[in-house]
Q: What sequence folds into this?
């Protein structure tokens, strides 16, 4: 069987990796079950200034330290619940238990010459319940 293909357990025909049904006999393939969160939540782009207390967001990226071409990330990654906003970013609590109260930087990109830290905006998306 060619690499990346799957075999129908009824008729033995090789099918493409994304096939939902066998091209020969029409038998359906089993797929990984989505978690409840994946089924009930969708991700939406949003302006961070429009967020309100209680909104759930997904965050990645942010500030980093650079020395001799070596980069050390210092931003937050994961899911958070918004507590409040200020002029430089978002105050939030971590949802997954890995992070407590934090400040998610959303200000202008800049570099501090004394510390070598690049202040870069986090990338974020809002998590919304499907209806």
A:
């Amino acid at each position: 069987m060619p690499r990346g293909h799957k075999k129908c357990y009824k008729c033995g025909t090789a099918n493409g990796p994304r096939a939902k049904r066998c091209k020969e006999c029409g038998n359906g393939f089993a797929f990984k079950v989505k978690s409840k969160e994946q089924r009930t939540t969708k991700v939406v782009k949003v302006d961070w200034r429009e967020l309100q207390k209680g909104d759930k967001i997904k965050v990645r990226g942010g500030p980093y330290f650079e020395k001799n071409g070596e980069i050390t990330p210092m931003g937050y990654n994961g899911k958070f619940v918004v507590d409040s906003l200020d002029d430089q970013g978002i105050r939030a609590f971590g949802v997954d238990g890995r992070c407590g109260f934090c400040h998610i930087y959303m200000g202008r990109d800049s570099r501090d010459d004394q510390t070598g830290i690049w202040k870069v905006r986090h990338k974020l998306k809002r998590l919304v319940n499907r209806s």
